[in-house]
Write a structure and sequence with these properties.
The complex is a heterodimer.
Chain A: E1 2-7, E2 18-24, E3 27-34, H1 41-45, H2 53-56, H3 65-80, H4 86-112, H5 127-134, H6 140-152, H7 154-160, E4 169-170, E5 173-174, H8 180-202, H9 206-210, H10 215-223, H11 229-239, E6 252-254, E7 257-259, E8 264-266, E9 269-271, E10 275-276, E11 283-286, E12 321-324, H12 333-340, H13 343-352, H14 356-380, E13 397-405, E14 408-417, E15 420-427, H15 429-433, H16 445-450, H17 463-471, H18 476-480
Antiparallel strand pairs in A: 1-2, 2-3, 4-5, 6-9, 7-8, 9-10, 11-12, 13-14, 14-15
Helix pairs in contact in A: 3-4, 4-6, 4-7, 4-14, 6-8, 8-14, 10-11, 12-13, 12-14, 14-17
Chain B: E1 2-7, H1 13-19, H2 26-32, E2 36-39, H3 48-60, E3 67-71, E4 74-75, H4 94-104, E5 107-111, H5 113-117, E6 130-131, E7 135-136, E8 139-140, E9 157-159, H6 166-177, H7 193-196, H8 207-211, E10 278-279, E11 282-283, H9 292-304, H10 308-314
Parallel strand pairs in B: 1-2, 1-3, 3-5, 5-9
Antiparallel strand pairs in B: 4-6, 7-8, 10-11
Helix pairs in contact in B: 1-6, 3-4
The chains are: A alpha+beta, B alpha/beta.
Keywords (chain B): 3Fe-4S, 4Fe-4S, Iron, Iron-sulfur, Metal-binding, Oxidoreductase, Signal
Subcellular location (chain B): Cell envelope
Cofactor (chain B): [4Fe-4S] cluster; [3Fe-4S] cluster
Chain lengths: 481, 330
């Protein structure tokens, strides 16, 4: 005998989220994730000139705005058959990295950690300290983090004019040439942020965090001196065992990101216990449980469509169900680092698979990996050399743009006919992670991660469910778009 | 003064912009101005059942709301049902919650161009029948109707922008908290005049290029973006080049056109965003308050008077010629 419980609105996630739980004997027998907001960007884009996508797509999302710009710029560059000059490529890396790093920080401090201040944990020995530090809006951490984040985002003022919603990221490079004194100012801002992270977040040098290769070394770091909020989190993770919470599919995908001269800083790939062949052509979107009409069969996004319908049997979300060769995959910082082969990321999933703790640690690990790369990119900028070349896509063409947003793999597929956008399909990271079931009945990654957790239909929702949901750093506005 | 913030059919970018406020912690700023957050979906502690209960109480009057802030367009579709956006945890469409709470709130503030006029969500075929709280594009109406007035007699206050500058939001709220925002402080479109009585053109660092119509021809050129690249800064109401973004930025400083994002209907300019429509070589969209004949005459004159330095720099991504140095004779 099971009962159903509709849970929402989830807060401290970007956008709207509702989950229906099927509860049996005190446990979640099945979870159904609903993205309850549809705006229709893929319909809005049809008929526009291709370059207008650069204005429209960042506005899909306020938190992954630059990631959307970057995917669109890559798709348009692909369609036009061009590549930006080195300065343009480096500026794009820096802009995307600045957004991704700010997102990791925002997620940890503003979205994820406040849950531990909740009264659910009042009996834990750490509760009073954690509540003082992480309580939403009034804790010392959110109030310390906001000014530091704003200071760091001044990089966006220089690199991109403003954030969110810039037009600086173009298929041919960057609209914002930087002069030497401005590059110097960016260095200063990065240095300040590095110092903040090393003092407040890690209590250690970034290089020392990046060099942690195993759970055992992570434990040695935790018990070491130096303080920092990561150590605090690790202590909680051990105490309430966040290492065995929220296991998903353990099939991890990354499109790879941050283009260097001849490779991406983090490569693309698929990992399922070992590296597996990864083929973007094997992506299909299934709409069997989403409110859309279509020919029926799952389609590759280059041939996909978006036709909303009001009623449909079996549908429970505006989110489509993307699958890679028919399989559910998880995407995000953990997936990115597992695919890239970071030893700590691989070790964290070695024993108990993907978990709340591993996802959170992977995000902070990325801060320690990407900031030094940003310093390197700044050093490679060459004032006086070109920043942007002109792009004119043909009247009949198509292109694809694949990037990694903070929360995972983002893809844009564009088809141009008679000089206008004929079709534009987007698959966002949370479309993968929070997808509904497909025609085979396979639940999405979060739906799998929630199954089996304790829950009741009358009592307050257990904090563990909040941890699992937020561990994916969902962005619901991107999910459906 | 308490504040309830709800996100309707938008991207959350107004909130993210707001969190980037450059005056210390935003949460401290609010406290200092006497503003208490009842609930905000992105930052508040309360979730699911607790949040739902609070919002129900706001809707039925058990909790008095001083300021209701709405971010994102109001989605009326499909067929007027509001079904494209049901607020999490229930079947009721977001537009119903907004109607109910707006009728009780002391003030209603539209945060961003989506809730002001419809914005980007209303672009193209407007698949969701998106509109603003009190405007549908330039037409008064929207979700709440042209005659809506709050309990103090104010219309919806439109903190337009895609996104708005963090200070536009905070300063509007502070004015309300201090009882210092009256009808005469709003312009014809309900925008607070402290930022809407300026033009983006004011303080634009490309003004010398504008003066001589020394124009950029491609992205990353230093010249004026009005003639060829779609810049609407001479017609867009906002102080973006005086009150800078993220420390020292603005769209123009970032090297790209102003797309007039504080104006109703900006999402459908009737031409590609990054190109300037012209008739007989003359841009259709002239600077605000500028007679056409004078604009043509002055443009022709100033083009012929353009210094070589300005002309050459306009087509370059870095300074080719510095202003000459003059020595004072002794």
């Amino acid at each position: 005998m099971s009962t159903r419980r509709v849970v929402g609105p989830f807060n401290r996630v970007e956008g709207d989220l509702e989950i229906t739980l099927e509860i049996e004997r005190g446990r979640i027998a099945a979870a159904y994730v609903n993205s309850p907001l549809y705006r229709g960007f893929e319909q809005i884009l049809q008929g526009k000139v291709p370059a207008d996508a650069l204005v429209l797509v960042p506005r899909i999302c306020g938190i992954c705005s630059v990631a959307q710009s970057a995917a669109s710029a890559l798709a348009l560059a692909d369609a036009a058959g061009i590549a930006p000059p080195p300065n343009g490529r480096l500026a794009a890396n820096l802009t995307l990295a600045a957004e991704n790093m700010a997102d990791h920080l925002t997620h940890f401090y503003l979205f994820f950690m406040p849950d531990f201040a909740h009264a659910d944990y009042a009996t834990r020995p750490w509760h009073a300290t954690i509540a003082e530090r992480f309580r939403a809006t009034t804790g010392s951490a959110p109030n310390q983090i906001l000014p530091a984040r704003a200071r760091f985002m001044q990089m966006m003022g220089l690199l991109a004019g403003k954030w969110p919603h810039t037009l600086a990221v173009q298929p041919g490079g960057s609209t914002r040439p930087l002069q030497s004194s401005e590059i110097f100012r960016l260095h200063r801002t990065l240095r300040e942020f590095r110092q903040f992270l090393e003092t407040v977040t890690f209590g250690a040098r970034l290089e020392d965090v990046a060099a942690i290769t195993s759970r055992a070394q992570l434990e040695a770091y935790r018990t070491g001196a130096g303080g920092g909020d990561l150590r605090t989190f690790l202590a909680i993770a051990d105490d309430i065992d966040l290492w065995h919470l929220g296991r998903g599919t353990d099939r991890f995908m990354s499109y790879g990101c941050y283009q260097e001269e001849d490779r991406r800083l983090f490569p693309a790939g698929l990992w399922h216990g070992a590296a597996e062949a990864f083929d973007v052509a094997a992506i299909q979107e299934d709409i069997s449980h989403a409110w859309y009409a279509a020919a029926g069969l799952p389609q590759h996004p280059a041939a996909g469509s978006t036709l909303p319908v009001e009623e449909k049997d079996g549908a429970y979300s505006w989110c489509k169900a993307p699958r890679l060769a028919g399989q559910v995959v998880e995407t995000g910082a953990l997936a990115r680092q597992v695919v890239a082969g970071h030893p700590l990321a691989r070790d964290m999933i070695g024993g108990c698979g993907g978990s709340v703790a591993a996802r959170v640690v992977a995000r902070l690990l990325e801060l320690s990996l990407v900031l030094p790369a940003m310093e390197r990119w700044l050093n490679q900028l060459a004032p006086g050399e070109p920043w942007c070349i002109s792009a004119q896509p043909a009247d009949e063409t198509s292109g694809v743009g694949l990037v990694e947003a903070a929360r995972g793999s983002l893809g844009h597929w564009i088809t141009v006919r008679r000089g206008r956008i004929h079709n534009y399909q987007i698959i966002a990271p949370t479309t993968w992670n929070f997808s509904p079931r497909d025609a085979q009945g396979q639940p999405g990654a979060l739906e799998q991660a929630l199954a089996g957790l304790p829950a009741s239909d009358t009592e307050t929702l257990p904090a563990a469910i909040h941890h699992v949901v937020r561990s994916f750093d969902p962005c619901m506005v991107c999910t459906v778009h | 003064m308490n504040l309830l913030w709800l996100q309707s059919g938008g991207c959350g970018g107004c909130t993210l912009s707001w969190l980037g406020s450059g005056h210390g912690s935003l949460f401290h700023e609010l406290k200092d101005e006497g503003i208490e957050l009842l609930w905000h979906p992105s930052v508040s502690e309360a979730g699911v059942d607790e949040a739902r209960a609070l919002i129900e109480q706001c809707a039925d009057g058990r909790v008095a709301v001083d300021v209701l802030c709405i971010e994102g367009s109001l989605l009326r579709g499909p067929r007027g049902t509001g079904g494209f956006h049901r607020f999490g945890g229930g079947a009721q469409p977001m537009i119903e919650w907004v109607r109910q709470i707006a009728s009780r709130a002391r003030h209603v503030v539209a945060i961003g161009s989506c809730s002001s006029w419809g914005g980007i969500t209303a672009a193209g075929i407007n698949p969701t029948d998106a509109c603003g709280l009190q405007y549908d594009g330039e037409a008064a109406g929207g979700l709440l109707g042209p005659d809506f007035r709050d309990h103090g007699g104010l219309p919806v206050i439109n903190v337009a922008g895609c996104p708005p500058h963090p200070d536009w939001i905070t300063e509007t709220l502070a004015m309300l908290a201090h009882g210092r925002l009256r009808a005469e402080h709003l312009d014809d479109f309900g925008r607070p005049r402290f930022f809407a009585d300026q033009l983006v053109h004011h303080g634009c660092p490309r003004n010398e290029y504008y003066e001589f119509k020394a124009s950029a021809e491609k992205s990353s050129d230093q010249g004026c973006l009005m003639e060829h690249l779609g810049c609407g800064g001479t017609q867009a109401h906002a102080d973006c080049n005086q009150r800078l973004w993220n420390g020292e930025g603005s769209c123009l400083r970032g090297g790209y056109a102003c797309i007039r994002c504080t104006e109703p209907g900006f999402e459908e300019p009737g031409h590609p965003f990054e190109s300037t429509p012209k008739v007989a070589g003359i841009p259709i969209g002239l600077p605000s308050d500028m007679p056409k004949a004078w604009f043509i005459a002055l443009a022709a004159l100033s083009k012929s008077a353009t210094p070589t330095r300005v002309r050459e720099n306009a087509h370059s991504d870095h300074l080719l010629r510095a202003p000459s140095v003059k020595r004072t004779k002794r």
